[in-house]
Design brief:
Complement Module, domain 1, Immunoglobulin-like, 4-stranded antiparallel sheet, binds 2-acetamido-2-deoxy-beta-D-glucopyranose
Amino acid sequence: MNWVLCFGVVFAVVFGSSEGSQIRCKFPGHPKNGYLRGDWINRSEGETLRVECYEGFKLKGPSEAVCKNGEWTTALGKCEVVMCQPPKTGRLSISDPPSCLTGSSPYGTLCRMSCPPGYPDQAGLFCSKDGQWEGRDVVCKDRQPPDLKCPSKDQVITHQSDPGKATAKVSFPTPSYTDNSEAHGGKLSFSATLDGKPVSVKKEHELSITPRRFDYHEVKYIVTDEAGNEAKCYFLYRIQDKEAPKITSCPSNIALTTKKGENMIRVSWKEPTVTDNSGKDVSVFCDRVNYSQFPVGTHLVRYHVSDRSNNKAFCEFHITVKLPCIDHPDFPITSVNPGIVLPDPANACSYPASDLTKCDDAVSPFVPNLVWKQICRKTCKAC
Ligand SMILES: *[C@@H]1O[C@H](CO)[C@@H](O)[C@H](O)[C@H]1NC(C)=O
Ligand SMILES: *[C@@H]1O[C@H](CO)[C@@H](O)[C@H](O)[C@H]1NC(C)=O
């Protein structure tokens, strides 16, 4: 009996359901992305078939069906791929393929994550079998400093001091800068310093004279992005002083007469008054020594004035030293021989001009007194 039953089953397997006593259920087909468990070959009455899904697939619908009276109790469910919902990523994260961030992605999707230019990071996300993302999102940290354009790197800008002033009014060039972060809503902050102190670039600035060749005013521009990346540039101002000092009072010429019997005299004068636009001390040099002895003759006195920028000014005057008028031996003449040669006018500086009254005393036994007096006056005027 057992053998017969057994044979019948074998017969039925080999020759199909049309023969044999048992009714079989129809083969439901192999599930996609999964497999069948149970006797899907014999599919005999009471047999249970179970669907199992491969990794990364999830069953939708019934997992089991029982063969009853030649019919499955239910249609088996289907294995659907597990989906990952868009990952929560940073604001600046970029995915490849882009669809990773726009919709759900099937199991096994690999998303290469990157950042915009200037934010160097790379990472990857993988849609795992349980619908969760594995891996790491990028951290988009801006590491690119802003691009700041200076008038020209290390440039020296030269201005001349304003007339009569120790400064020059200067307008700084308008800074020009951009940054990668601006495309993503990033804000930049700009600041400027002049000689290390914060200044506004919109205002005019009065820069003082820089007298020596390597003295400069330094202007620095600084742009910072929100990530703290900084771009700096600096340039230099040289303020030249080309204005010479002004000598407002130069001593006038001096004429002096030595004392009787001396051929030198001490001469002193007042120092000239000097002003300079720089407002700084100027150097004053005189090529003659004040209150020193000057011999008979004419002497040029020259003041050399120069400011710290080596602008020069000069001032000159003359000192004339004369011998005093001496009493001419021929005046007053009280006695003279006939045929006397009258005093030579060129040499007849007999009296100081102020002292011509002495001619009133001039008497000559040979020339009428009145004429003699006139000769005396005329001759002595040369003094
Ligand atoms: C199918 O049925 C035959 C006879 O009843 C049995 O010997 C065989 O083992 C069955 N096949 C499976 C896969 O169970
Ligand atoms: C020269 O000396 C006199 C007398 O000492 C003084 O009053 C005068 O200021 C001096 N002038 C200069 C140029 O130093």
